[in-house]
Queue: 2 jobs
Job 1
Amino acid sequence: MDFASLAAQLNTGVILPELIVIITLLVVIVGDLIVGRTASAQWTPYVAIAGLLSAVGALYFQWDITNPISFLGSFNGDALSVVFRGIIALSAAVTILMSVRYVAQSGTALAEFITILLTATVGGMFLSGSSELVMIFVSLETLSISSYLLTGYTKRDPRSNEAALKYLLIGASSTAIFLYGSSLLYGLSGGETNLGAIATQIEAAGLGESIGMVIALVFVIAGIAFKIAAVPFHQWTPDVYEGSPTPVVAFLSVGSKTAGFALAIRLLVTAFPLLTDQWQFVLTALAVLSMILGNVVALAQTSMKRLLAYSSIGQAGFVMIGLVVGTEDGYASMVFYLMAYLFMNLGAFIGVILFSLRTGTDQISEYGGLYQKDPLLTLSLSICLLSLGGIPPLVGFFGKIYLFWAGWQSGAYGLVILGLVTSVVSIYYYIRVVKAMVVKEPQEMSESVKNYPEIRWNIPGMRPLQVGLVLTLVATSLAGVLANPLFTLATQSVTKTPMLQSVLAGVKKPAFERAAALAPVQPDVKL
């Protein structure tokens, strides 16, 4: 087999965005080794952000790619994966903006932090398009191990060490569970690792509804639920969010969660088309538990990081509504909400970081009267929190309306009503923070706000934080008013994805035809 044929079958151009991030990662590592820790901190963040934005630009040019299948069917660069990879890359870029000052103040090396973060980004991007079991596992572990390292990055902080240990132990258990489910799929399919081929072989063998497939489904969903922090696999979330460096928490809440939902769609839709009713039932239960527990427990929190941790659990429940209904609008509403979540959630975390850098605390009670000392921070944090709560005309409102409308159209009335009720509950604890910042009289200021330092943006590392604050504020505000382009992007990401269209168009087809439609054409490799 000649080189030209091999290159055509590998189709390496599909992973150009990931290659750009990897090259950026290598530049950061080598540059840090050459110029030293102090000098590299001056330029490595901007090189990393430039690399991530270049990767997003490369994704833009892959939107209408004619052949998205690469590496002999292991990776699928379809429109759905393009959007998810773009969300992950953008979340990493904003995370770097908020990390420069935070990491410098903690006394740790910035270049190493960026290197690990870029590694996690590569893992998440590959996971979003993986369509083969081995590649899924390698990508998942690349993301997970990097996340463990980031969680414990501030080695002098006992809370960070404790969070990393908890995350590692629970994460290793969930990985083992997921791997066991994957091994059952491999065995039942007769040794297939491609997701589409697995579904075809299992249906041909008449094992579509066997006890082995049901066990594999349960174990796989358990692994995915850990990654998206769905109840009852959420136990790690509050402690890890509270103890980890805040920029790491921001990335985990957006980048890692997005990769988890990308994996959920691709794996469940492609490998389990014969158990659709079963996995939708399980995910319905997870969505109900996540919406109730996440939003109710958040009411009692006194720490902003723990409040946002339980908020993220509730938000995962909202997003799962789109996956449960399994319609074109359901999948599109998932994508739209994750794009909106990128702006508003990272903006909230930037506000928490900025306040903690200036006051040394993240207690909600210490935000009292903040608007009198820092109007920009108060405005940005208020807008992002109100958007998370679904207050119109912010982007979070349109995201929830789209999710609930898709659920109502498909007949999931109970889920939608529960979502509306828990969304109203969430508005209470978000507005509680806004009220503390805005309504407090001058004599009711907290001690931290009374001793609030002079606002200076010319301190090293503060300018990127300011840029991130303004960007997320503008995006959260305007994305609601100008939501139509995001609606269009979300809808096209579903209509341009053959995997989803095969499922949506084949609902009334026999099970064997539905399974066969999901199997990609394998290239004829002759070595």
Job 2
Amino acid sequence: MDVFSSLMDGFATALTPMNLLYAVIGVILGSAVGVLPGLGPAMTIALLLPVTYVLEPTSAFIMFAGIYYGGMYGGSTTSILLNTPGESSSVVTAIEGNRMAKAGRAAQALATAAIGSFVAGTIGTALLAVFAPIVVEFAVSLGSPSYFAIMVLALLAVTAVLGSSRLRGFASLGLGLAIGLVGMDSVTGQRRLTFGQPLLADGLDIVVVAVAIFAVGEALWVAAHMRRTPLYVIPVGRPWMGKQDWKRSWKPWLRGTAFGFPFGALPAGGAEIPTFLSYVTEKRLSKHPEEFGKGAIEGVAGPEAANNAAAAGTMTPLLALGLPTNATAAVMLAAFVQFGIQPGPLLFANEGPLVWALIASLFIGNFLLLLINLPLAPMWAKILQLPRPYLYAGILFFATLGAYSVNLQAFDLVLLLALGALGFMMRRFGLPVLPLILGVILGPRIEGQLRKSLQLSAGDPAGLLSEPIAVVIYIILAIILMWPLLFKLIRRNRPASLLTANSPGGSEPTEARGTVSHGSHRADRKGDGGHEGDGATVTSGTELTTDHLDKKEQP
């Protein structure tokens, strides 16, 4: 009851006309900046820090909260429409969202992202208000072995299900881990893979890498095929979600929320891991697995919900422990220090009105985002009707601007071009780009947690199994890696009659569903455009593996 009364007091503060105006400004700024590749909410808050000297701390943090949530949604807009994530946590959204846009369903992808963000953000903020002490206690109890196991699970689980082959997926992951090694060793201070270039000592910024691989690589790929294929206008499609879209979205929204908030609340968490895991889960549970890689709405709804739930969860370690888990939270921590406020265990006691007004403003910002962005979904989708040369020229302009504004170094533009060429080559040879981005993001974190674990155990590898949660995760990891082999063995040992009986329409003749057992039927299938090898290999339930970056696709 005390939490409820404190939250009501927070709403009374946040809903004053001036604070509500700052919330609207923050949401609009966050959405607008999130749309621009490379210009995320962290940079926006950092640029506004000097301006907020004249504001009351409560008003300033209400505006910062609006920028944070708005930036999370804005990043999904460019991921869906232009295959260009504005934030690293929006990388997964680009896989299915951009394919939906190219299939004329951009408005539906934007709508499910907006509604999923609202649902997950609202539930996540409620969990923040009610269960913050419990979540913080659990997060503090986890040690380095558990964090290491969680990150390894995220790496291998995503890499194993993407791409046209596992070999290509792990090759892409290796490239990402190598890029993540660039910079200075955090323990020994030794420079790695810098090639004598001092500007590489701090490593490669993830924003530069993501913008180069996605935006520049996509633009180069389109330019390489521009003369071969005529330009055409991608249809926007129906402006709103249909009944089937709602039916396929509401469960991923809830599952994404369940992934996002706990990971966001972990001191070593963030929004990247839950979005990746949400995508993998939706692909496994979907009744339409063949659509993944071609524009499955579940692949947008789940990760976007996980993204915004993690944004709410991120506030838990920031407010309760003074521990930022991403760049935006780190800048907000600097803002607390600027106003003479120390986040930590005593923050709720010493600055209760500010904290509860901030939490209430998250509810308000969530509602404003839905109110503003949902009606604009068809308008955002019309971006795709711009002529391709102008559209991709604009993408390159904003990608260059975003990469340069990260460190204000011309050297980042060289990196942008080099990594953009790498993105182009990956598309050319069919390597999925998602494992590369995941390797860049998680590689340094995994290294840090591995070193901490081994230091605590004096170099004994058994120290990695010193926590029950780590052991459980390794068991799950073994099941994921062994499942394809086990599945093949099970299918090989099952009688053909069981395969027929368990498939949809079990009494239907096998040949009518694609399993051809006689030579005459095989010849008929081949004459209809099939393949001779189709006989006895195509069964109902066969999982179709698709590459989310189809190298044969023509723009």
